[in-house]
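To: structure subgroup
Subject: Chain for Friday's discussion

All,

I'm putting the inputs and outputs inline so they're searchable in the archive.
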Amino acid sequence: MSTTPTSTTSELDPTQLLGATIGVTSHRRSDELIATFTRRGADVVHAPTMRIVPITEDADLLTATRAAIADPPDVLVVTTAIGLRGWLSAAEAHGLDEALVTALAGTRVLARGPKARGAVRAAGLSEAWTAASEQTAEAVEHLLAQGVAGRSVLVQLHGAHTQGALDELEPLRAAGADLRTVSVYRWEPPDDPGAVDGLVDALAARSLDAVTFTSAPGAVALLEAADRRGRLPEVLAAMGDGSPGGAVVCCAVGDVTAAPLRELGVEPLVPERWRLGALMRCLSAHLGAHPRARVVTPAGELVVRARGAVLDGRLLELAPGALAVLAHLAVDPGRVASRTELLRALPAATDGHAVEVAVARLRSSLTAQAPSGGALVRTVVKRGYALDVA
């Protein structure tokens, strides 16, 4: 089931995500994601887990194109808009684009979703059917119900000839179809594996407010990277744990992208419309309404994020230890937290002195950056510390 945010926020609000840190795993159109989140006040950690490589000069693609022209299929399944556009672009490079469109004019065209349908129409073709779920499996079921024995079916794959993609089409072959495939781009390992490792570590440490996924292969690549580093259980717990002050919001562009995450028990936030713009609006609204903590204090509203805090609309500059103390106190405002309890919340701390140092630095930073901020952290004699609330 798709999940939608419970509130909406102005598109132009530059403070909506102030203090938030968002991981972006996509390669294609990542600039658009990053610009949108940063305009709303967030910091972005960009670590493409895969990269899309067009294969317009690939010999196999050229052979498949010529075969489609010489022997047009009875059915063409278009799975992605970028795939169809890329195929026509590759055909144009060899002077075959007009011949390809002409050959496919008599073919029954199935589109995997609205974007694929739009590309079909833009190419001068007409679709006979569109999958409501935007999933290849629905197109396969539709064809099986219609009967495919003795018919030629050409499927434009939405990636390389992965075993998973081919397995999904195997029922067509088993039902007697003459099955052919064409790949217009392929997924390759990332240019910067170190950035992916860093993202894995940040997820495991829960030092991100959210992470976004725009493709199933990209989600799988992140999970595989976490497994290689021995941190998959921590990453899954971070994305799937709904406890206060703990979860990293996992957001997927649609159900196809969400599938590898759901298989491992993670239920991501999914926009109602499976589009990049909808993902950005959905996640922004959700994070705007659901920070790690939100507390009304005598010095103004305090909003706590994974790597930052905002007091009375002002982003605070806090050392990691000071932020850890503030975040722990803000989760249950007004309650007294013992030194032992705060010690466990401090990264790499070994003794009670570290708590006193962190509290002192927190008070100093609050005093310097916010009116009345220094008095927000109260000392409760022989018990510990508490956050002053309005």
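Points worth raising on Friday:
The CA atoms of residues 2 and 272 lie 6 Å apart.
DSSP finds 15 helices and 17 strands in the chain.

D.
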